[in-house]
Fold these 2 entries.
Entry 1:
Amino acid sequence: MSDLRLLLVDDEVEFLEPTAARLARRGVKCTAVSSGEDAVRELEAAAFDCAVVDVKMPGMDGLELLRRITRDFPGLPVILLTGHASVELGVKGMELGAFEYLLKPVEFDVLLDTIRRAAAMRSA
Amino acid sequence: MGGWLTRLRSLFNPSRGDRPVLGSAAFRLKYERFRELLSLNDAALQLYADLEDMLASSEAFALDSTLQRTRKAALDVFVMVKNLNQIAGGQYHDLYDAMQRISGQLDAEFLRLRGAAQGPLVVPLARLRASDVPAAGAKMANLGEVASRCGLAVPEGFVISTAAFSRFMAENELWERCERLEGVLETHGPEVLAEACAEVHEAILAAALPQELEAAIEDTFERTFGEEEVLVAMRSSAVGEDAVAASHAGIYYSQLNVPRGEVAAEYRRVIASAFSPVAVAYRLERGLTAGESAMAVGCLRMVEPRAAGIMFSRHPEDLDRDEVMIAATSGVAAGVAAGTEGGSVWTGTLGGRFEGEGTLLSQEDLLRLAAAARTLEAHFRSPQDVEWAIDRGGRLVILQTRPMVPVACEIVENSTLTEGLPLLLEGGAVACPGLGGGPAVVVAGEDDLRGFPSGGVLVARHSSPKFLQVMNRCSAIVTEVGSPTGHMAILAREMGVPALVGVAGALTALAEGEAVTVDARARRIFAGLPADGKAGRRRRPGRADSPAVRALRRIAALVTPLHLTDPAAPEFSPAHCRTLHDITRFVHEKAFEVMFHFGDAAGEDRHNSYRLAAELPIEIRVFDVGGGLAEETYVGHTVPVSAVTSVPMRAFLDGMLDPRHAWRHPRPVSVKGFLSVLGESMAGPPPQAQKLGRLSYAIISDRYLNFSTKAGYHFSTVDSYCGRSTNKNYIHFRFSGGAADAQRRARRIVFLTKVLEALEFRVKAKGEILHARLDKYEEEIIVARLEDLGRITMCARQLDMLMDSDSSPEFFARAFLAGELDKFY
């Protein structure tokens, strides 16, 4: 079976790079980008099993990207990540169809498990 | 279908040497979300109970750490809503609206408490009035009032406002660190607080003043004092300072004789004093919020005094005495105020002579001061504590005025009322403290609540939020099972009804109609009523109406009240959720409903299950969602009973495998019964039976069981959690369907009702469907009841054939409860 293909979107490079590297070591083929706009370009160019998206980003934020994904790439599960936990963001994210809403700092194993589950649900 | 599951298995079948994950990912995910929901539910209920306790007790609490917990709880409840929607396929989207509504209201309260002040950064003193406390702090607002409305002189000057404070704190990211200090003291004690305060102090002194603020201070200084080389006094003026119940006398820092160039540095020092260990401890003790530490700073021209001091417009030992007390010293009065200097003291009345020592003040001075004190008292409508100075030109200048602090009354608790009464019972947990007595009224079911007598002591096996209906008539509540964090306990606190929960043997010791007195705080129950007849409910003494208590009350109103008490009521809906507690309750209830049908999906997926190799007349397939089976690899997807490590499954199996079952030899049935069953069978089993085939499914974890079975023509589901935490434990049982005629089916329901009620289940039967619940029991009891359900499940296979007369239900119920299982075969 081929690797799980993940799109990881976060403007925080300190989070993005080490996380992508760790995921790669655990068999997740990770495409890491640091903006919503770049994410859309990647989505148009290649197929993914799951996207992990930071909520707070300059330019196109995570919720806007989620909106775009549910509209243009339906069925792709999106896991929202946020460092600023708020009920309002959570509600918006879930109502927009996020697969999961995780708070930073997120435990790596929890993130990995959620990614795998999201991808599995997509296959189902 | 098989494809993704195969892939999934390989995903979960990691190369890192973990045990293989059994069962399907979908089940595991659903189960884990359910489990997370349950533990969040517990944490939320704990917070609700704590909030109620804080409001009920007179003890000090750190508002800010409480607010942080409340914020966290709102997020937790959101996660509960999210999880419910995830396990229920988005059925409860309306809950998101309710969540957002309540959370929005909470946010508005939080914002209000944070007190992020708006407005000008610097304000001339002459422009201030008493109503300007939020902008200028209490001390400076009052001083502005004195100058403009009382005809008394005050020093020239200006105030660096609370808006400036907010800006300074925000730009330097200091606020977050400061507002946690009360919590540090509460949680870690004074030593850790001292360290934390020292760090904060250092950070404040090192912080830069916002440029705009620095410019505004220089500009106003120039306009107020011109080019003149003046010295100023920098005086603290916090929002919560100078209130009646919280004088803050000497808590904050003020600095005299500050030259122009030092103003910014001294400003930081005054701000830092709002976060000294003593200031933090004081706020915690007096129930002030960090919002009330919002600090304005007065910048006032120094007065060159001939004499200065403090005066009280009334005698401090007795505010009713018509005496003014005046203390004075030569030069500035800082020492008198701090208590390091006694100065000279005079007392006297307005019309008479002042008695005292020394010659610093003439009788004329004293009378002039006393008159000023009384003017201030009349204006501010309360006895005043006034700092004053008489300058070298003889002009009287008021430096500060604030309400005098009255002597606190001591509240005596009467613990002697139960003296001489014989002790009946002791123990349990305090759900709501207090003393109450009256006739014991045993409540076995909801029906007993009707006609509950006024003043009765409600005695029940279980606590239930339904008791709310009679709480205004209860003088006390005693239950054998229940937790102080449960719904009922919270309601009891809300209603102020003394209540004890978890009192073993209460139903045996407290006889219906007998007068008893409950001392909930002491966890004791006495026979009879106190001799003085003060048996009625005793309300708790009133507590200080501090700003923190008021703030907490506003917050708690959005959090703790429970309006959704009856799941059967039409109001039990997301639209009627008004508090976090309502949402919690709703989610909890619906999560169980959803999990109840957890097994339905199991019939669709045989690939991820194990066949249980058990000596039973039914085939059971097992899905392990975590820790339900021993960690071994099983050949051919078959597991022995010995591999089952799930506590509830094991108990249930033990009941099914009870050697007293003689299921291998079904007894000959009466012809009538047999024909009845046969007749219904020929019409074919209902569609669910066809779907389920002959299989039974168990979704298990170490502490969880969801068992669906078709035994004979009955369908039954057992859903249970069985762990060490009594509060989380439950068994839900549902029984329906059946092949026999309506009469036999009705008898079967009667049989089950009798048996299950005897086993302490709460039973609801409608038509041929029966629901039974057992909530919040100790692990041992849950295990025993699951064994009973296992036995019932096996015996039930024969039931239709056995129910051939109206006396059958009673006969077989007795037989079952007596352990005579052979009678069923």
Entry 2:
Amino acid sequence: MANPTTHLTDLSLHDLAIQLLDRASGRVELAEVYAYDTTSTPVDFEANRLKSLETKDTRGIALRVVKDGRVGLATTTRLRAGSDLDQVVADAVALSVFGAEAKFDLPGHIVPTPVTIYDQATSDLTVETMVGLGQEMIDHVRAYDADILCEAGVRRAIESVVLVNSRGGEGAYRKSSYALVIGGQLIRDTDFLSIWEYDTQCGVTIDAKALAEAAVRKFEMAKPIAQVRTARMPVIFTPRGVASVLLSRFGVSLSGKSVLQGSSALSEKRGETVFDARLSLADDATISGVSGAAPFDDEGTTTRRLELIRHGVVDAFYYDRQTAGLAGTETTGHGYRGAETLPSPSTSVVCIAPGETPLSDMIGGIEEGLLIESMTGTFAGNIFSGDFSGNVHIGFKIEHGRIVGRVKDTMVAGNIFADMKDLGGLSDTADWVGGSVRSPHILFRELGVSAKV
Amino acid sequence: MEMRDVPSLRDRLADALSGHTADYLEIRVEETDATTLTYRGRSLEEAGRTSNLGGCVRACVKGGWGFVSFNSLEGLRAKVDLAVRQARLVGRETTTLAPVEPHVDFIIPTLVRDPLTVSLEDKKRLMDEYVEAAWAQSSRIQTTNAGYGDARRKVTFINSEGSYLEQSRCRVSARVVVLARDGGNVQQSRAVFSSTSDYDAIVGRHAEVGAAASRAVALLDAAPAPGGEFTVICDPALAGVFAHEAFGHLSEGDNVYENERLRDIMVLGKRFGRPLLNIADGGVVGGQPGTFRYDDEGTPTQRTDLIREGVLVGRLHSRETAGKMGEAATGNARAQSYRHAPLVRMTNTFIGAGDSSFDEMVAATPLGIFCRDWYGGQTTHEQFSFGCAEAWMIRDGKLAEPLRGTTLSGNLFTTLENIDMIGNDLVWAEGGGTCGKGGQSAPVGQGSPYIRIQNALLGGK
């Protein structure tokens, strides 16, 4: 019998998860405990100098139960004594009365995909080293232009996850992540230019100097300001532009949940050619060293590479267990969760296959067009429709095959279904954007561009 | 809410702070309890309950900050020591915090009908009715996404200057998003109800849910909005977002205080708009999502005028940004939770009422676009953009054909000048918005009358 006065503070994450599972198991048909422990140590620089050092420890636990055929959820970070765990069980059971009918089972064995996501070198980083790296990046950018007001971040996080369920399934992993960000603001009259470069890896494998140099190159490219007219013209999205503007539209359209509900425009298009034959998009949590990777998803399904769009054809949708059960199909290992929510279909690491066009040829072939790195306002609007529209934040004008300067007061609008049927091309290399997207440059033959006159 | 630790917490916190060697120290402890019901289509998909207990220590030594957050309240003393050690590694200058009188206060919200006294059965029945009210509108409704949530949050604050504060807050909300579909054409609209004091405020609003469903269906037949420059009339909900994005963020002291060029641009007394324009912010505004008595540094909230008659007259501050700029703290240091150090940010931001009626504004617009309701906004300080949910052409001074939602964009230095008519009725957007900044999100209030903007840039084909 579990003791309600047990002190939880000193328990390992595994023992904590088992304690909660034991308390729940006898009272319900199915129980699953997801427990996490994260320590992050961000080193942040503001206005060219070290601003703060932080240590953030977070420990929490989530309990999903099935009782009388219905799903209940309770989560907590209030972990003092055994009575707190009893409260979690009571809450999950009480809420199951109102919960959805369970259409899933849990795995009796959790089989991890062999993927390397922990690097001891990341754990071993000293604060002094991290401070030094941040300063080095700032010095590099300010050596280029001392008028740039720099911000930088060197961030390290170590995350432990334990997943146990009443079918006997048990899994655990540890993930390290290391992130660098360098950027700054350059103000001239009323022109505000903000440039940011960032990267995230599991290991200490990011070249700080190269990252700072990339920021410098972008500042240099952005110095001249170019004129734009309202017209339809070719537009290239850089890998970052693809990640920040286009992928959310693909994400909702390919989610098994949107498909099940009929809110995805692709609901009845599986097996059909919807996009340009050169467009292939996969989700792959099995790539080592990438922070979006994991050996199993948040409900214990082994992760695998899943082709979602193959040569323009909608090949698959991604599912968690419950959604797959409702849709009469199998989970694809995409049940991911927030700290306070049930698993839900989500992508992990999205990879768009490169094409065959060298980037220089792509730019060289454009008489008048844009190269877009980031936009603002694109999260707004109706993403189910595939529409995207927003203000170009960092974008460049192309004239006669050359980049001639940065654009301002320029809006771009398009639709992933209408405008990606026949693309101008995909670049022959794909680049990482943080630890969860890898994409080539993508050229749209023509998008609507609106400019302030 | 269960708070078994309360009798001893104050003493434990005071003890952890005693004998420290930092210039400034504070501890926050936070407890939250929340219940959510989430619907996909007609069925309840997720019923969940969440409780949180956590805390943080923030220390300042010679202008450098150390911050430690945790879930276990054991060993507080060691956590204070770590925060001070970290601050000491950073600090190279002097600590300059604007002075704030120490306060000891206990804030408990006055609730008309406490959501915790309502059974979960009743909450679910209400949401079932709202979902059905949406589906009943049309056979062209594809699906609905609905959610109910209530939350209690108690924050205990103590600092090394003698302040001790306990503040509790409550929030209840219901939302129904309706998707209508015709082939590949998918359109959406939504109804949001929210209160900080009364469960009954979200009850009995079936007609508004039905109206949202009708709007989504109507959008199926609306044409896409055109792109280019137009005279635009914004409804109060959209204008409130505009005030937040177009101007509010640049009035935040942390953007300005260490940025000499921006200080020159954002100098008090500079003209940004026509004399009819007034913009203010304040946590003291009653009953809004950004309403609270003390901010997360223990500074009492106030109303801060930012633009008065078109001229920049004030800005929002934490103790640090105010101290460095020789101004007074304004109660705008806010943290998302105990996992975060406070940032300077807006509370409830609003445009003051003018003297035009909506009908007069439309009648005075030969060709333009009326934009209604919002889907978020974003700023890069100089340039901003924000999305509207639905729109209508204005032709010859009359509302004409309906248009789909679109994205509006503008430039801080020209767009405020281009506001040439302001409505005579200030309306607060129900439920306000969630503002994201520096990796933290916070609930904010947004209020405005109808406004007319000349030469606004719309994204379109």
